[in-house]
Amino acid sequence: MDHNKKKTYLINTIAVVSLYLVFFVLIQTKIMNNYFVGIAIMTCIMIIMAISLNIVAGFLGEMALGHAGFMAIGAYASASFSMALIDSGLPLPHLVVLILAMIVGGIVAGIFGFLIGTPTLRLRGDYLGIVTIGFSEIIRIFFINFGPTGGAAGLKGITRLVNFHNVYWVTIIIVFLVFTLGRSKQGRAIISIREDEIASEAAGIPTTRYKVLAFSLAAFFAGIGGALYAHYQSFLEPSKFGFMFSIEMFVIVVLGGLGSLTGSIISAIVLTVLPEMLRSFSEYRLLVYSLVLIIMMIFRPQGIFGRSEFSLTAFIESLIQRKNIKNSIDGGEAS
Amino acid sequence: MTVLSAKNITMQFGGLTAVDQFNLELNANELVGLIGPNGAGKTTIFNMLTGVYVPTMGEIILNDQSIIKKTPHEIVKLGASRTFQNIRLFKDLTAVENVKIAYHNFIDYNMIQGMFRTKKFWDEEKKAQEECMKLLDIFDMGEYADTLAKNLPYGQQRKLEIARALASDPKVLMLDEPAAGMNPNETAELMETIHFIRNKFDITVLLIEHDMKLVMGICERIIVVDYGKTIAEGTPDEIKNNPEVIRAYLGD
Prior knowledge:
The complex is a heterodimer. By secondary structure, chain A is an all-alpha fold. Chain A has one domain: ABC transporter involved in vitamin B12 uptake, BtuC, CATH 1.10.3470. Helices cover 77% and strands 1% of the residues of chain A. In chain A, helix 2 runs antiparallel to helix 9 and helix 2 packs antiparallel against helix 11. The two termini of chain A are 43 Å apart. The C terminus of chain A is likely disordered. Chain B has ten helices and ten strands. In chain B, the strands form two sheets. In chain B, strands 6-7-8-3-9-10 form a six-stranded mixed β-sheet, with helices on both faces. A four-stranded antiparallel β-sheet of chain B has the order 2-1-4-5, with helices on one face. The mean pLDDT of chain B is 90. Chain B is of the alpha/beta class. Chain B has one domain: Rossmann fold. The chains are: A mainly alpha, B alpha/beta. At the A-B interface, helix 6, helix 7 and helix 8 of A face helix 2, helix 3, helix 4, helix 5 and helix 6 of B.
């Protein structure tokens, strides 16, 4: 790791920690009431969902419209697991239960991602989109009819283990992991499939394996998102994980820019907070929401950030540079 | 020593026989040209040799191993790589990233090490960067390393595609019309480059080309196909005077 990289890590760590401290103070001093904390938690969960969907939609460049299905699998699997674990009476701290539940939710969703991805990734584009919608609907209807998890009435009595503090750090870790994935040899292989599948195969990349890997990883992180959602809401109903929810996630990713993680984060924040802010004019809410999307697609069809990332280090450096130029100009005038 | 051989390979698309009982023997370190009129089946032969198509009949042996029914990436691993007639670069990635993708199999760390950025990740990435830069420097493309592939001039894109094909360390390099769309100066430069890489990397080169000056200028052996069949084979001088070849190109 060279000097520049260390600097980048340092700056980003400082930014992440100070953002956390700001929220920490706001929550402790009750300036942020429970309603706002709730929005913040949902925003973090949506960031995880958008980031994980970005692995398939952005890196791999495939249309996956069934992300809510994997979230549902993760949510139900982790909730069942944590309920069983707490019922068993083992004296485990809540954080440990949550971490185990997240791992279970992630792995179960990841396995389903693998099982669904292996046959369906032979399809491309719209066809894959339709098949993934189909699978997520199957999952939803399965949970409506599945007695042990409450069926259509929903799964009640999940211990609420998620608060802002743990969801924030989980989000940061997942963003970091997906970011580094995109810059590893595996990420490059996945991106090369997006760029040109035939060339990728001719360059020696086992494309089928990497497609399934990308799909399973996306499902894995979606499962973690689902686990957090389950242990925040403490109640799960299958109807929440419908087709519209998958579309909502896809819109976030497209709006932020396919392949841009910072774009996904920003648009997840905007598209989660905006509907809440517009709640008071609820009759215009959907109108404004769709207007934002239309304007966006006209003026910036590639999304907020396109495929590039926002770099804090580069931003700070450009600020310093501008200041230096300004200083030298001022200095020049003085002499 | 034979590096790549094809025995009686035939490719039928429905009722159409695109390639009919084609035979090929490539020896180590040879520079062979594959020519023929449009639609003669040259690219189909390439696609069979690189695993894109599975021949209807026949056998292909690469380094003493059959590659029939192997996928293209497995064939790359066994030592045959190619370029495309219409350039197929990863357009939104930089030149050096393009090469690094083909260098994939020589980078040794797993996904977990990559995601958590262990020391191994940094070491291997550093090595990959250096090796890929070396390769770009051979093509005098070092200055373009961080340019997006789509922004490169046409000639450089062609060269980058060859560099990418070489990154997987092939024994046989197959070039599909490398000089297509180049002006005479660029073609002349390309001829030198092909000669140079053949000697430098000690590889066998098989190329499809329509530019007769290039083919006659650098190929040691030429195979002429028409209607999916070999109609002539020999040194450039033999081919130039072969009546069959003249007839195929000019008609009776």
